[in-house]
Amino acid sequence: MMKPKVLLTRGLFADATALFESDFDLEIGNRERMLTRTELLEKAGGKDAIITMLADTVDKAFLNAVPEIKIIANYAVGYNNIDVAACLERNIPVLHTPDVLTDATADAAFALLINVARRIVEAHAYVVEGKFTAWKPDLLLGQGLSGKTVGIIGMGRIGQAFARRCIGFGLNIMYYSRSRLPKEKEAAFGATYAPLEDLLKAADFVSLHVPLTDQTHHMINKKRLDLLKSTAVLINTARGPVIDEAALIEKLKNEEIWGAGLDVYENEPDVPLALRQLKNVVLLPHIGSATEEARFMMAKLLYDGLMAFFSGKVPENLVPEWKRRVESQK
Ligand code: NAP
Ligand code: GLV
Ligand code: GLV
Prior knowledge:
Helices cover 38% and strands 15% of the residues. By secondary structure, the protein is of the alpha/beta class. It is globular.
């Protein structure tokens, strides 16, 4: 059998890239950087499958330009970079990487929360800059976590993993999500469901875990930011455009909230200078899932899904829209 022709748009890292090499006729777009749109279209031509990164856009124009493509495998759980409706129309399955990065991403969100609340990054800089000359009772006072209320927006895989971490730190949990959890699950988390506006008013800390969709774009707009407590901490490891970033920068500049911990931005990789100049933020370069374990397992999941597809089976890691199509055809 001829090996399927696969484009991996950028090199992963040694072990993860090697996974694909034996069973596929693999082309690596670029080992060092993202492909430009022109390069992407050119290299995807004639391929059976393409493994995309979260900044590669798969839209109608892309699909029209590469009619041979049989399947798309996105190296991320979020798939807002892919026009899934257009893929469904053309009968092109879309794979993603759920579950294997859940704990890593929840850890990153929790790291941001504790770092912003306890001013860890500021404190580190204080020591590095040689400013630690005496112990002081009121040096770099932060906020305690235990006994406070955390508001989780989007109670899916990562939202729930984040909730488990919150339980360990003695936080009370409120959540808002499209669907309510079953009663037993709510009880297990000790979590209270609340409408979005109520959550924003009541929570001491808010963490976002929704996918980016038409419904969640600017879900956290100026009006909703204004509902937050003046001591609130806002964490975003979901997608940048879920927050109106310009409005958030204003809130932070005016010190109308305590701070923010961000892993994602509206126009990645651009991070506005105004945000980078603030003291009350902790900023990460979209590394939510960046553990050796998770990033390897993401590759393995895509490899398994592609192998299943090319041997005529249904991959386990189809995106939900595609899963529903397969279910409805049974
Ligand atoms: P998930 O299991 O699908 O969870 C998403 C949750 O959001 C679900 O509970 C979903 O509700 C809810 N939701 C969807 N639309 C909503 C809306 N309009 N209003 C309120 N709630 C809504 O996905 P996940 O695996 O936890 O991942 C969540 C997101 O995290 C990904 O989409 C991705 O963008 C982001 N992420 C970022 C990183 C990073 O590196 N920073 C890493 C991994 C993931 P239902 O239960 O009704 O579907
Ligand atoms: C990363 O952001 C992902 O969606 O996996
Ligand atoms: C602080 O270091 C303390 O001992 O309280």
